[in-house]
Write a structure and sequence with these properties.
Layout (H helix, E strand, L loop, with lengths): L18 H8 L1 H9 L2 H5 L8 E5 L2 H15 L5 E5 L11 E6 L5 H10 L4 E6 L5 H5 L2 E4 L12 H13 L5 H12 L4 H4 L3 E6 L3 H16 L3 E5 L15 E6 L6 H8 L2 E3 L5 H18 L19
Parallel strand pairs: 1-2, 1-3, 3-4, 4-5, 6-7, 6-8, 8-9
Helix pairs in contact: 1-12, 2-7, 2-8, 4-7, 4-10, 8-12, 10-12
Amino acid sequence: MSIPDIALSSSSPATTLGTHMERELASQPETWARAAALRDEQRALPAFGERVAVVGCGTSWFIAQSYAWLRESGGQGETDAFAASEAFVDRGYDAIVALTRSGTTTEVLELLEQVRGQVRTIGVIGDEASPGVDLVDHAITLPFADEHSVVQTRFATTALALFRASLGESLDGAIADAQAAVADDLDPALVDAEQYTFLGRGWAVGLAHEAALKMREASQSWTESYASMEYRHGPISIAAPGRVTWHFGEPPAGLAGDVAVTGARFETDASDPMAQLVRAHRVALLRARARGLDPDSPRNLTRSVILGG
């Protein structure tokens, strides 16, 4: 499968800013297909009926939330998602899944050291030469999805593609939707909005949080994110003309109408929520370029958070 070129908005100049992010986000249909074909790696993930904790930091925590919801709601077994720094892992879990692109994040490595020899650990890791590989009982490495850009796109969604495939899902529809999300034209008004609130239900809540994080990291934009049904319990007060309420997955009845009353733009479509996230990635990249920002090297951020003693 060839990597498609990203279709830029006419309102944003083609520059070298975010070149890695551009290539990496556009490659997501390809990397998802590769993950869906990794049958041995999928079998290494927790088996049916096991009690599981999934841990990560930042983006990886949000993907952990999506995987946990899909696994437990699908009857595969009790599954909890934790930020690695706040994880309760002494609850008799059968396995801990640690998700980390770099394999060097301090909080993840500290947790793995803490539980070593006490509970089975499985690492889903981008860098196959990282110290995280040696700290887990079984490492699933995805070097083809690792990234140069600090702003993470394809590793997170490729890991989720692996998780979804391991639960018996076909990724064919999601891949086709992502190909369309990469190629479709973007409305300049969507790119130029003043503020974004991302919403989702079920497993898409994690993706909504991730979309908001990507927009903040890449373009320093004002973003918020919530579970869909919580939005009308206060956060809708921020909706106004020139702002966007962006829903991943099928929205609750009446929500679009409630947003319309505020004058905000209600954005949603029928594509797979992971493909909707790809579209949000493109908006984040174009907003960054329009502001002269480089998401490959965003302000105050590094590829991995490694804390000092």
